[in-house]
Amino acid sequence: MLRSLALAFGFLTRLPVKNAPVDDADFGRSLSWFPIVGVALGLALVGTERLLRGYLSADLVAVALVVLLAVLTGGLHLDGLADVFDALGGGRGDRQRMLAIMKDSRIGAHGAAALCLLLIAKVVMVTEVLRHESLWQLLAFPVLARWAVIPLVIFFPYARGDGLGKPFNGHGRPLHFAVATCLTAALVAWTGPQAIVPGASTLAVALGIGFWLKRHLGGLTGDVYGAAIELSEIVFLGVAGLGDRE
């Protein structure tokens, strides 16, 4: 259990975790712990907000929280988002060309534009969360976004013969998603019914991304997983914000 938990943290964050020998089954088991990684990130955001409250404006605190999340995840998901949009913009519908672009470490115009727009949107949405004092969203959105990506890992084929996400895809099972779903429900139960619609919207968007990119790429990649997490976070914050304002 500890090996698979450490593997989940190592895959989704840049937090210092002890590297230990793992077997193939640990990659699948680690998917069950993705929501735990999300709640750790959420607690870091809430704790930082508490520390900065009263010292900085809501706008600046929001910027600090978005930066903190990027630092804790190593910018890995943001890099995936940029790579996916570069591939979509420059691949001209050719599968091999799109996969080659996604593997290129350089960022293009489409990826840079998508990255900037997403970060601006995230700062704006987090600012609204702080102004409405809806701190439950800060804790919940990293949990739900990492839960929503699990079906993409398990139920969709991998587009490459290798890659960072390949071992997780190859050993993920429906049981792991079931366990993750139970954990997610337990972790966000304290928020009450207000998390249900944003959570369902998050899952729907992640699945939509999966089906759409599978059609273009013939499967998914680690970059797609990262992009799905980033876009799912935005969707959760947007839908939850609408509910809070009603």
What does this structure look like?
There is one protein chain. The radius of gyration is 17 Å and the shape is globular. With 246 residues, it is mainly alpha-helical. It has one domain (2-11, 20-241). The model has no long low-confidence stretch (mean pLDDT 90). The protein has 13 helices and no strands. Helix 4 packs across helix 7 (109-131), helix 5 runs antiparallel to helix 6 (95-103) and helix 7 runs parallel beside helix 13 (222-245). It has helices spanning 2-12, 24-30, 34-52, 58-72, 76-90, 95-103, 109-131, 135-148, 150-155, 166-171, 174-188, 196-217, 222-245.
Question: How is this fold's topology laid out?
Answer:
Blueprint: H1 2-12, H2 24-30, H3 34-52, H4 58-72, H5 76-90, H6 95-103, H7 109-131, H8 135-148, H9 150-155, H10 166-171, H11 174-188, H12 196-217, H13 222-245
Helix pairs in contact: 1-2, 3-4, 3-8, 3-11, 4-7, 5-6, 5-7, 5-13, 7-13, 8-11, 8-12, 8-13, 12-13
